[in-house]
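Re-running Mycobacteriophage protein to confirm reproducibility after the cluster update. Everything else is unchanged from the original entry.
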Amino acid sequence: MTGPDQAATDDDAAELIAQLRELAGADPADVRQVVAEVLAALDRAAGGALRDHLPEAIRLDAGLGPAAQARP
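Result of re-run:
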């Protein structure tokens, strides 16, 4: 992606990073909680598919439980 759409995406990402850094400076535990809530919401929006792509520790922090087991 290039052009105005990419610039808007880059600006959004930079703003999110700045907000997380500001929050992390205040209390890293709060950042973990916010990230866990965001990941849980994204997983719900994806019908549970996101958890399959996250490391176990992050899944557990977000309260997402185990990833789906591959079936033979």
